[in-house]
Amino acid sequence: MSLPRRGLLLGSALAGLLPGAAAAQGAAASLTALAARANAGTVGIISGGPDGTYIRIAADLAAVLDDGETLRVLPILGKGSLQNIADILVLRGVDIGIVQSDVLAYARRERLLPGVDSLIQYIAKLYDEEVHVLARPEIGKVEELAGKPVNVDVRGSGTAMTASLLFSALGVPVEARNDPQDTALEKLRRGDIAALVYVAGKPARLFNGIPGDAGLKLLPLPASPALLETYLPAEFRHTDYPALVPEGATVETIAVGAVMAVYAWPAGHERHRKVARFVEAFTGKFPAFLQPPRHPKWREVNLAAQVPGWVRFTPSGR
Are 252 and 229 in contact (CB under 8 A)? Predict the structure, then answer.
């Protein structure tokens, strides 16, 4: 008897004597096939912290687009725009990230991420995020923060990046602190810091629990020519923050765009095909994002809007 024939008979005999082993092999094969199907349709979206707008936008993407079969959308908590860009470049399971539109220019200027120009593209410009400078009662204007402790969020975050650019443009040197925003808000209430900076789409959930008698205030950020080179003029109204803006009043500020960024996978690559399915579903179901209970910032999104300095991802690969 030949060796291959002998091995085949031996394998059949062992399978009969050890049905559990054969069943385990079959289960393993089934799980492998299941894992392949699941991963082929799963898109991971790195967003922001639990109190920011990014995670709520990512949650909306999952609620609208995740059909549980051909497409699964997994929202992931992130640590800010710079880290999100790095995660898109190197982290397994992260296909898309929500970042600030000025992060690519900042990373390029600081030479933080090799090849970032050719490796990162965008799917869509989402909306504009307002720059919040929340201060103690004794602070009347942003210039009074010079030399004082100001929280700018964790290192590597989009807020920390924007705050650095902002205070530099205004010529206001501050003592930067890097606590998470919820911790910073408590320190602000106690008087341990003079202000905090937070880049988020209004209304930011972080400020929901601030009572009207807390004395905290949103400082105005007039759109000076230096700031308008990078940012857009914006404002806060009483309807945005009833406890922080008096009725009938407005507070000037600036805004930066939020962008849905993606790795520049080559056409034909499995990950390119996966992201392409996401983009096609996002475009086709976009009207659903404009209806309650989705975040009101979706109503500001223009899918045709371009992002200067960025290359758009094309599902077709052209």
Answer: no
**What is the rounded distance in angstroms from the CA atom of residue 79 to the CA atom of residue 127?**
19
Query: Hunting for tokens 């894992």 — which residue is that?
Result: 35
Rounded to 5 degrees, φ, ψ at 237 are -120, 170
CA distance 197 to 209: 17
Strand duo 217-218 + 232-237: pairing: unpaired
Helices 53-65 and 270-284 pack at an angle, to 10 degrees, of 90
In this structure, the answer to whether residues 153 and 242 fall within a common structural domain is yes
d(CA 197, CA 206): 12
Give the range of the structural domain holding residue 280, as residue numbers without chain letter.
39-126+260-300
Per residue in 262-310, pLDDT tens?
999 999 999 999 999 999 999 999 999 999 999 999 999 999 998 877 8
172/248 same-domain check: yes
Instruction: For residue 301, list its beta bridge partners.
Output: none
Is residue 31, in this structure, part of any structural domain at all?
Answer: no
pTM above 0.90, yes or no: no
